[in-house]
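FORM 7B: Structural annotation worksheet

SECTION A. Query
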Amino acid sequence: MIPVPVAAERNIKNAAERTNKMETLFCVIDENDPRKSAKIFEKAAEIIKKGGLVAFPTETVYGLGANALDKTAVKKIYEAKGRPSDNPLIVHISSLPELKGAAAEISPKAEKLIDAFWPGPLTIIFKKKDIIPAETSGGLDTVAVRFPENVAARRFIRACGLPIAAPSANTSGKPSPTSAQHVLNDLNGKIDMIIDGGNTKFGLESTIVSAVGDEITLLRPGSVTVDMLCEIVGEIKIDKTILTKPDENLRPLAPGMKYKHYSPLCNITIVKGERETVLKNMAELAEKAKANGEKTGIIATAEDRAFFENTDITLLDLGYESSPETIGAGLFKVLRTCDDMHLSSAFIKAFPERGVGLAIMNRLKKAAGYNIIEVR
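SECTION B. Predicted structure
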């Protein structure tokens, strides 16, 4: 049907035969062949309408999509990911008029955010209409909605002709997928189809705000920063779970608030303090871990690499501190690389929690299980 890289096709078929699970279609979008791409979206829509699961690219991370109005299909998302059922999903739409099919109330401040940031990496929570099943909303009376910027995502949703419920397309708790290969590694044989649209743009999940009532509350930081939000709607609230470790009894209002997320098998340690002291301690900690027989590494920005070049510790590139967006875009990839290299531990410095840095540290803290060492 749709050309797939030979090695990938062979791996998919072999895995399906070994596990007696479904064969996952792996379909690559070709921007130079619109007809082929159209067939991919047609096939994806056919799968969705039959209650199946399709992984698709967005500008943030890859999503695992199902018919948001079909509670049986939505349950398959939780099963494929191993996701707790009280962790709500995000409903994706392909045009603004579709919002009225999901949201019961749209406040004036929500309207301002929509005008400023949609389509884009911002998810807004509204009071939901009854048509949205409890399985999609995590049992809440609200619904999280996003209008993605990614053209392939919108074409996929539009082809389906219905809203798409989608969390990140990974095994629950693991680093989010920023490429189709990441999805294949996690969910091969568990879902019907993967649409390969290349690497994602932002690499961090969308910013999530609640717009229920008169106030705007930040529930998950992302590429749409606090300053950007405040510029549009004035002062906003910041949920305490962003700044502190969430209570185990918390009922999550949005994805990413409660459960362990973004975590590689490798043990991640965040080192916090003044730069020179931090880098020195990272090197010492890594050397000590290596002396104890661990396969260890240091996750370093381009600006800090020179400090470690005279050591024989494995270095992993994270991007440029002068351009925090590159760190956000590469964070999940480097966390997955830690596991690909079979590292047992890795050390990374803390970043300022302002701008995109708030989102980066939110993900890092969860990936590290809040394992933070402060040095002086």
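SECTION C. Observations
The first helix runs from residue 6 to 19. Residues 1-20 have pLDDT under 50 and may be disordered.

SECTION D. Sign-off
Analyst initials: ____
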